[in-house]
Amino acid sequence: MVIAPDSFKGSLAAPEVAGAIARGWQREAPDDEIVQRPLADGGEGTLDAFLAAIPGAQRRRIRVTGADGQPSDGSWVWLPPGAETPGGTGVVELASACGIETLGGRLRPWDAGTEGLGEAICAALDSGVTRLIVGLGSSASSDGGAGMLRALGAGTRDARGLPVAPGLRGLREVAEVDLSGLRSAPSGGVIVLADVDNPLCGPRGAAAVFGPQKGLLQAEIADADASLAAWARHIPAPADAPGAGAAGGTGFALRAWGGEIESGAAYVAEVVGLSALLTADTIVVTGEGAYDAGTASGKAPQVVIQLARSAGARAALVAGRIDPGAELSELAAAVSLTELARGAASALAAPRHYLELAGQALARQLSASR
After folding, report:
1. I need a surface site. Which of 12, 144, 152, 201 has the fewest CB within 10 A?
2. What is the CATH number of domain 46-265?
3. Is 286 in a helix, a strand, or coil?
4. What is the mean pLDDT of the chain?
5. pLDDT tens-place string over residues 293-333
6. What is the pTM of this model?
7. For 164, which DSSP code?
8. Residues paired with residue 93 on neighbouring β-strands, in sequence order
């Protein structure tokens, strides 16, 4: 059987989730062979997914500018060279460099920036990688990727010729953008992993849909959207392209740098070789923190369920919470930690314990029926 969950955001990373489910399963079915393939959709846990699945992958530690503007510990992952990537591949993740979780609940909707992501990209380029994979997700900022571009060498100035402030606040003052000093993208290309297809602006844009998660008040959304639209007029990329609104508009800036946006969960699943592990005799357990209507938009559990369907395998789910209206018809079994623990607070207080109980319950139900 295969265990392929995403992270439980704000609780456990995907490898920890997979390990806990596996321990519980083996208590009930100790002779079953278990393969763990933790997943990610471009957000939190993307680095961990590559480290766990790619032989020779290495984590490289760096210091970057955090979402609060202060120096912060970060990292990126180096993947060994291949035929098309003689210098290796660099994997960078916005979530760990300057993501919303790094703020500890102290949201900065107008001032958080993406400089840390650009600095992580520069570190990978400095090492000589010839391809980049950039994971977007869990962003703290709605700066349109301006901070990232500045870290890569772009200049942003106001009408007086002075540098603008970081974050969304600075976008309102941008009068000139100089891209002449921008570092070149690597020869092997830039793959951008995102889990949303929203445009930069408008009712489905970065400010309207994701701004409130980052602390924007409803009364501020129109101003924020106008700031992003003004920023877009300086950047040579389509603001209405699918994924331009990912990570507060960082997808838009990465497209301007030559990045190609792909479904994060589907790409990671392919890279870690998940489909090759699935046959008609396989049980695959996936999961995430909250399984709801949004899961169907291309998040990791939905990708796993689709791959299982194609292979004739049986898919099961473990989630922190399962929405009452969520579609479960394609699942052989589903377990909610909230229900197991008889409350969300108890589940969050001891997630490993309840994940192990969930793994044990699934093994009891599904191992016996093979």
Report:
1. 12
2. 3.90.1510.10
3. strand
4. 94
5. 777 667 899 999 999 999 999 999 999 999 988 889 999 99
6. 0.89
7. P
8. 135
